[in-house]
TrEMBL record:
Organism of origin: Microtetraspora malaysiensis
PANTHER family, A to Z: BIOTIN BIOSYNTHESIS CYTOCHROME P450, P450, PUTATIVE (EUROFUNG)-RELATED
InterPro entries attached to this UniProt entry: Cyt_P450, Cyt_P450_B, Cyt_P450_sf
Protein's name according to its UniProt entry: Cytochrome P450
Family label: Belongs to the cytochrome P450 family.
Organism placement in taxonomy: Bacteria, Bacillati, Actinomycetota, Actinomycetes, Streptosporangiales
Length: 401
């Protein structure tokens, strides 16, 4: 089989190349994928089986996150500097200190306190959507939801939402012509978010509240605290990591329900299924398709030798369809339980900080939609994002009744 699992045009037209990934899992689970010198990106080991994605994720000593995680377009020096300073692109021990300081804000208990706020946001969004004639699921529902939740989390005033939304769109930096931003625009948005985060922290120092920002700017039990710089960069990372991922999980989930009406009927008949549906949506959609690591020493995966410095790309979307782990992996089943999906990462140091929050958002959104609009349907073609990194949908026309 001809293998090219990074062709952005393919992703724009069809989404994740599941047939090729299946072939790789069955025939060449650690596969040397040629790079493209002309486009300026190196070859890499494509790792496609669940067990191996978990292995790479859990060995950050052997597979470093510190050297650019996405595949394409090496960044200009200033942006690389900014990326380097973000937790996602750091290795232990640098990463460990920051992560332990921010974990406090994202425990299941802290996140569960947000449920009613999230429900209110979902109801408000669909109330507004109800009055519109040309409804787009992305613009009207799935894009504002995670953004408003992050604003709530940060205690950002309602009047700042549009501004933050605009920054977050400029920060996406996708290779899609509809989203393309120049590096200068991305830089400027990052600088604005950075300054804005500083002002949020200053406001909470003056007027502490029972919220995440207040918690994060205070020392932990051991007396350690995030520096101002670390806090501001963390807010930037939240906006980058929390928005697009959740937006695409929700949109991908909705589209999948349109394609599997019997699963939608199950949810409408029993809304309690939204809990297991959230995990199944993340498995099925895998909003983050892949991440790249760099081998720090000579090593092996499944007997295949990997040399120090080699790029290793872990395909979450593939691991999530591995027949060795999931019974009937190509069946979308909202009752799947247990569901060892690894759409939030394969465990280890960088496992998604926002996983409880994202699952709560998905559960509540689909509870609200199935309750209020059991006849919601697709009103036009979905347009996919041109990206091999984010499994994204740019627009999805819907009707509510
Ligand atoms: C890391 C996926 C939602 C914040 C990650 C990673 C993945 C991921 C695959 C990297 C894991 C690794 O390298 O091992 C997703 C998906 C989401 C989602 C699929 C939605 C369905 C969120 C949300 C937030 C968030 C809502 C925050 C509000 C983060 C952060 C990291 C991260 C801060 C970096 C953690 C670290 O480096 O220690 N996410 N994510 N994510 N995610 Fe998420």
């Amino acid at each position: 089989m001809q293998i090219n699992v990074v062709d952005q045009d393919y992703y724009a037209r069809h989404g994740v190349p599941h047939e090729q990934l299946k072939w790789l899992r069955d025939n060449a689970p650690v596969f040397w994928h040629e790079g493209d010198a002309e486009l300026g990106w190196p070859g890499f080991w494509a790792v496609t089986k669940h067990e191996d994605v978990v292995h790479v994720s859990r060995h950050s000593d052997l597979f470093s996150s510190a050297r650019r995680l996405a595949l394409f377009n090496e960044l200009p020096e200033e942006e690389r500097e900014l990326q380097r300073m973000m937790m996602l692109n750091q290795d232990p021990p640098e990463h460990t200190r920051r992560r332990s300081l921010v974990n406090r804000g994202f425990t299941p208990r802290v996140i569960s306190l947000l449920e009613e706020h999230i429900r209110d946001i979902c109801h408000r969004l669909v109330d507004e959507a109800e009055g519109k004639s040309d409804l787009d699921f992305v613009t009207d529902i799935s894009a504002p939801l995670p953004l408003y939740v992050i604003c709530e989390l940060l205690g950002a005033p309602v009047e700042d939402r549009d501004k933050i939304f605009e920054w977050s769109n400029r920060l996406i930096g996708a290779e899609d012509p509809d989203y393309a931003t120049t590096p200068e625009e991305g830089q400027a948005a990052a600088a604005e978010v950075y300054a804005y985060a500083g002002s949020l922290a200053a406001a909470r120092r003056e007027d502490p509240r029972d919220d995440i920002v207040t918690r994060l700017i205070q020392p932990n039990e051991g007396g350690e605290v995030l520096t101002e710089d670390e806090f501001n960069l963390f807010v930037l990372l939240l906006i980058v990591a929390g928005n697009e991922t959740t937006r695409n999980a929700a949109t991908g989930g909705m589209l999948t329900f349109f394609q599997h009406p019997e699963q939608w009927a199950r949810l409408v008949a029993d809304r309690a299924m939204a809990r297991t549906a959230a995990d199944e949506i993340v498995r099925w959609v895998s909003p983050v398709n892949l991440f790249r690591r760099t081998a720090t020493a000579d090593t092996e995966i499944r007997g295949q030798k990997i040399a120090e410095g080699d790029k290793v790309v872990i395909f979450y979307a593939s691991a999530n369809r591995d027949a060795g782990v999931f019974a009937d992996p190509d069946v979308f089943d909202i009752g799947r339980d247990p569901n060892p999906q690894i759409g939030f990462g394969g465990g280890g140091a960088h496992f998604c900080l926002g996983n409880h929050l994202a699952k709560l958002e998905l559960r509540v959104l689909f509870e609200v939609l199935s309750e209020r609009f059991p006849k919601i349907g697709q009103a036009g073609e979905a347009a996919r994002l041109r990206s091999n990194f984010i499994n994204g949908i740019k627009s999805l026309p819907v009707h509510l009744r």
